[in-house]
Amino acid sequence: MVRILAAGDFHGDKQTAVYLANKAVYEKADLIVLNGDIVEENDTEGVMYHFVKTGKPVFLVPGNHDWFATDFLAAQYNATNLHGKSIQQGDVALIGCGGTNAGINMLTEQEIYDIVKETNKGITAPKKLLVTHIHPAGGIMESFSQFVKGSIGLRKAIEATKPDVVVCGHVHEAEGIEEKIGNTLVINVGKKGKIIEL
User: Fold this and answer.
1) 162 by DSSP, 3-state: which?
2) How far apart are CA 12 and CA 20, in angstroms?
């Protein structure tokens, strides 16, 4: 079993970074997954250090506020930008698709679908965790905001690839919401974070 601390949407809040890093240690997480909007493009200081100093592997995907900063942070702190990749950790394949379906660095619904489908090729791990920033369309999370629409491409990709768990965010008001798409558990992990066992 792999214990994962998953969190995101804390937008450079250093106190939250300290809290989450301590939570990863206290809860004996094996690794840390950050699902976007962990910093702002113009303010990247003082966040990643806290996660890296835990000694645990750190994986991240970009949100809509840190699209360009994510590669920099991954290189600077020896973390892994999971966007468009799949990496096996123990019995779990971590699959990444960052970004959103709106805004200046938007991905099209087809791009989101294709990224998730492509990163699923060749996976042999018995468990799959899909790490996204955007939430899927047609669920409870989408109802929490009139302005932030879920991704149709992501929903179709989840239905096609059937990950065990999806961690997402983006809609701050839906933090902590858990729902199902088929047998896939979708969790908006938010800045409070969530321990996931797979």
Assistant:
1) coil
2) 12
Over residues 7-59, the pLDDT tens digits come to 999 999 999 999 999 999 999 999 999 999 999 988 888 899 999 999 999 99
Q: pTM of the entire structure?
A: 0.96
Residues 6+ apart with CB under 8 A from 196: 3, 4, 6, 129, 165, 167, 187
Instruction: Return the number of other C-beta atoms located less than 10 Å from residue 84's C-beta.
Output: 16
What is the dihedral sign for C-alpha 57, 177, 150, 172?
negative
Enter the tokens of residue 119: 């990163």
Domain of residue 76: give its range.
Answer: 3-197
Q: What is the mean pLDDT of the chain?
A: 95
127, 125, 135: which is closest to 102 by C-alpha?
135
Count: domains in the chain: 1
Enumerate residues 6+ apart whose C-beta is below 8 A from 70.
36, 60, 61, 62, 81, 83, 98
CATH number at residue 192: 3.60.21.10
Phi-psi region of 102 (alpha: psi -120 to 50; beta: other; left: phi over 0): beta
